Amino acid sequence: MISDLAFDAWKDRAALRPIDDVARLLQLSLKKIAPREWAGPCPRPGCGGHDRFAINLTKNVYNCRHCGGGDGIGLVMMARSLDFVAACEFINGEPAPDRDTRLSADDQERLAQEAAARAAAVAKRQADENAHRERERGRLYDIWHRAIPDADLLKAYLRLRLGTDIAVPSRLRLVREMPYYSQGADRGDILARAPAMVAPIVGADGRFRGLHFTYLDLARPNGKLHLLDAAGEPLPAKKVRGSKEGHWIELIRVDEPTTLVHGEGIEKVLAVWLALASVGRDLTTTAFWTSVDLGNLGGKSAASWTHPSLKSDKGRPQRVPGPVPDLDAPAIEIPDSVTDLVLLGDSTSDRFTTQCALARATARYAREGRTVRTAWAPADKDFDDVLREAA
Q1: What's the pTM?
Q2: Element at 22 (helix H, strand E)
Q3: In this structure, what CATH number is given to the domain that contains residue 319?
Q4: Domain-located, residue 40
Q5: CB of 85 closer than 8 Å to CB of 97
């Protein structure tokens, strides 16, 4: 009897390969930041950075703050621009077995037992991950619950960024002394204790999923904390803990909105909200969301595209997430009530990469009876720059 069990076993062997082994196969340059976590530049062409990419040995996954995450197969697909089968071949070091091979009864039984064992291992790992995720969610919710609403320091930061006083949205709160850890989340050395603006990340079911942190220092021009790592490279003033993929921050919440203004950053979206309110626009049915980052705004791409101008260190054209969405991947859910979706374009980020992300979002969220349009900030400016300069 013809069986697919041999192919499935080969495929699963690639999926279960330890993520650090996959990173070694790809010759990634990573540094240890925790007992079971390594970080470094993102291997996707055109992404890079310094520490935005990490692998977690416990969960056997990778994650990039810009591109998203996945398993070892997904890592190879992303880093080498390969399809699924080619990525499995790369990991296993051998081609896929012929699906038309006739298997003996003993081979079929053995492969079925191996498949059952792999399924049990995956189920256990998933249960462990869920338990860890729920513990972290509880810790983050406690931070949010204890944070201070309508704090004077928070008002001062938003005044600095927007150029005027505003009523602080209820979804933004302040933690007066939030530790900044060297190894992410709550691990490693504490590099600083600083005020932090926190915003809850939620899912389609309205459930709390995580927190977005913006560490503050009002003595600096942009109001954000400035820290350097051991190599003298700047550390991000913004951090995310909890689950981000397919979730969002409801800056201005409206039940069953008909219009949704959706952008990448908190300050940018607030600037648009304030500008529209200042000219007397009726915003009673308009919600304002942030996607936390650009990759989450557009969702995963079906394939990478060659960037028209960016080159690698070796002079090769870089590839970036393309404009066609992967509709099978998790993504932010737009309410059915929304008939007018406005996507905000950041003109200070790479134009081509941003255009691709907004094209993915447009294709992903389009539906009959809904208009999806893009509003771009002026060249080389963000919406908060425009508002601040006009104040």
Answers
A1: 0.72
A2: helix 19-25
A3: 3.40.1360
A4: yes
A5: no
Residue where a domain stops, chosen among 45, 72, 103: 103
> What is the structure's pLDDT at 251?
96
* Contact of 49 with 235, CB cutoff 8 Å: no
| Domain CATH code at residue 84 | 3.90.580.10
Residue 142 in tokens: 């406690």
Tell how far CA 320 is from the center of its chain: 15
Q: Which residues pair with 342 in a beta bridge?
A: 261, 373
How far CA 137 is from CA of 140, 148, 173, in Å, comes to 5, 19, 17
- Whether residue 329 lies inside any domain: the answer is yes
Tell me how many domains the chain contains: 2
Q: What integer pLDDT is reported at residue 330 of this predicted model?
A: 86
Q: Which residue has the tokens 């995956």?
A: 122
What is the secondary structure of 325-353 as a DSSP string? Answer: B-TTS--PPPPTT-SEEEEEE-TTS-HHH
**Of the residues 51, 80, 103, which one is the last residue of a structural domain?**
103
CA–CA separation, 263 and 272 (whole Å): 10
Q: Is 305 a member of any domain?
A: yes
Provide the phi-psi class of 184: left if phi over 0, else alpha when psi is between -120 and 50, else beta.
Answer: left
Query: Over the stretch 266-313, which tens digit does the pLDDT of each residue have?
Result: 999 999 999 999 999 999 999 999 999 999 999 989 888 889 998 876
pLDDT of residue 266: 96
What is the helix (H) or strand (E) element at residue 115, kind and residue range?
helix 105-146
- pLDDT tens for 317-330 read 888 889 999 998 88
The answer to whether position 172 is within a domain reads no
Residues in the chain with pLDDT < 70? 1-3, 99-104, 107-108, 110-111, 313-314
- Contacts of the segment 186-192: beta carbons below 8 A, 24+ positions apart: 186/139, 187/33, 187/34, 187/37, 188/33, 188/34, 191/227, 191/235, 192/225, 192/227
The confidence score (pLDDT) of residue 358 equals 96
pLDDT, one tens digit per residue, over 240-251 is 999 898 999 999
> Domain of 91?
5-103
Q: Is 195 within 8 Å of 219 (Cβ atoms)? A: no
Q: Which amino acid would we find at residue 261?
A: V
| C-alpha radius of gyration, the chain, whole number | 23
Strands (DSSP E) found in the chain: 31-34, 37-42, 48-56, 61-64, 68-70, 148-149, 173-181, 190-202, 208-215, 238-242, 249-252, 259-263, 286-290, 304-311, 317-321, 340-345, 371-376
What's the pLDDT score for residue 103? 55
